[in-house]
Amino acid sequence: MEFSIKDIIEAGEGYHIEFKEFLDKSFVEEVCAFANSGGGRVILGVADNGTIKGTHTDNSFRSRVQDSLRQLQLYLDIEIRVQDNLIIVEVPEGSDKPYACSRGFFIRNGANSQKLTRNEIIDFFQKEGRIRFEELRNEKAVFDNDFDERAFENFLNMAGVSRSIDRMSLLRNLDCINDEGKLTNAGVLFFAKDIDFLMNHAIVVCVLYKGTEKVHILDKKDFKENIVENIDNAILFVKRHTNVQYKIEGVQREEIPDIPDVALREAIINAVCHRDYFDRSSNVLIEVFDDRVQISNPGGLPSGLRPSEFGRKSVTRNPLIASLLHRINYIEKVGTGISRIIQAVDENKKSSVEFEYNSGFSVIFRKLDRTSEADLGESSEKTKGKNAEIILEAIRDNPTVTREELCQITGLSIQGVEWNLRKLKAEGKIKRIGPAKGGHWEVIDYSC
Q1: For residue 442, how far is the Cα from the chain centroid?
Q2: Tens of pLDDT along 135-187?
Q3: H, E, C per residue of 26-57
Q4: Which CATH superfamily is domain 5-126 in?
Q5: Under CATH, which number does the domain 381-443 receive?
Q6: Predicted pLDDT at 229
Q7: CB-CB contact of 391 with 424 (8 Å)
């Protein structure tokens, strides 16, 4: 399936397309990145914003392009062709990765090229494989039956893409269909009618629990739409089941949620975008408890990202998905999500955030105590004494009792239990022996 250069430029830069207004030192870096990824085109004579500026196309200039390509190590058969006042450099996916240039090793990360060490590239391809899930053809999908025109139109509106390009050409430029016009896995995620049938493990599961344990389910939703709607629905689910306080100044009312909107949105998008889609055993899972919200996805840190680099360096597991989400402004800039979450939580001051990564990845928002004394079970001396007495009795019976178990025994929230424990310790009635994990309580004074 052939497409005109005008169509490609109209669609903009992406995982397989790079515009270069000039032949500069970064040119060979882009070529190297394409060779180490899925291949692509570098179009010389086009500005980053898609404006056609034109470039020299004479033999002397083409020789300069060839000289730049000779920096690539190892050799790769790269086609150079001239169309009007542009030079198109067709870079195939390399069969002998990793490739390097004089400035180092590079790989494609969304619509950008990122420098890596050789060992990181070797490790990346050993663990992730040379074929990416998002680029594979979906064997179940039949385009005429499964393609959702409504989802496609919504995407074009959000991305601001011109309707002057025919649908199939645009889908191919977006890498959502292959050369035979078959939907890729990325195409299914963004534009399929029934993701449940075609890719069941891509469903987003949201659960609301009563209390702080996984015992009583109050609400559960399996979101089975396209990836964009699943993100939106998951965000709404959490917001519907978490608290919002109101700050009124004059005639203005400000909403202050337990979890800042920016942090919640980034965490859910991160889970859906960066999960390991080769792992078909589990879904993105969002769990809402009385004291926390936990967002988990299969796949720990991607290859090439060490724990010490977490939050400071970006390595994208699914660069095509990231690129498509970037087009519709669901991702502002690759690599900034974790920093934005931390900053938003710090400014909000109503929750804390933790990150866990091993075989999976989790973001845990813990709600901080911002309730009134009445909410903590101390609205009266009678209530206060009753709760303290119950806690002392529970500790006497079981010195290793947990805060979560005390919640169930007293009926208080986790914040209420912690308030009472702090007060009992301050009054010298109890003390903690040993660490938080593995230690136990000791009752010193039974009087309340």
Answers
A1: 44
A2: 889 999 999 999 999 999 999 999 998 888 889 999 999 999 998 999 999 99
A3: HHHHHHHHHHHCCCEEEEECECCCCCECCCCC
A4: Schlafen, AAA domain (3.30.950.30)
A5: 1.10.10.10
A6: 96
A7: yes
